[in-house]
Amino acid sequence: MVADWVEGIAAALGNLDSPAAIAAFLLAYVVASLVLAPVFLLSIAAGALFGFAGGVLLAFLGAVLGSSSAYAIASPLARLGLLVWLDRDPRVAAVRQAIVGRGARVMLLLRLSPLVPYVALNYALALGGARYRDYLAALPGMLPATAMYVYYGKVIGDVAQVASGVAPPRGTAYWSLLALGLAATVMATTVVTRAARRTLRETGVGPGP
């Protein structure tokens, strides 16, 4: 199981010296970002290993590196015939244009939402033709969730507990983040829907105002 592999990496990091642990952590985060692994386990481990401030910094840096690696792999595929074929449906093309055309704002809202998996969103945005500068600018939207998981890792304080599958407590921070994510999802959906409708009207496909 991929999850077992990630948990094993998190446990192994505790046995390394600090510089080696940092390098191994970042490498593990990049690999996990590419293979659809549950990277939140690494964020929890970061809190247990490096404390809150250091854990947030390293987890976010790992997310930036992992997202960039996924973009580098997936972005060239956006030019393949499959997406060209999908765009033959004006509705599909309009939605894709709405997301990419709105740039960092919509992507930031999507990053804020815990309902949209980090790794899947990396590939979806890259395949959708998002510009890298917008893609990168939206990554700070991950910070609230990253900080929450790192904090729980610091509270747990033991990588062995992370590796054994200890679930983070669902306190006020969890429910606040969930509420924020739900609001962000609604906002993102509204913006994309309106932009898609406008694009359809401009192309003469959709209904008028």
Architecture blueprint of SSEs:
Elements: H1 2-13, H2 18-34, H3 40-74, H4 81-86, H5 90-101, H6 104-112, H7 118-127, H8 132-137, H9 143-156, H10 159-163, H11 172-202
What do these coordinates show?
The protein contains eleven helices and no strands. It is mainly α. The protein has one domain. It is globular, with a radius of gyration of 19 Å. The N and C termini lie far apart (50 Å).
Distance between the termini: 50 Å
Total strands: the figure is 0
Order of helices and strands: HHHHHHHHHHH
Low-confidence stretches: none
Average predicted confidence as pLDDT = 76
Helix content: over 70%
Name the assembly state. Answer: single chain
What attributes does this structure have?
single chain, 209 residues, mainly alpha, 11 helices, globular
Structure, briefly:
Helices cover 75% and strands 0% of the residues. The protein is mainly α.
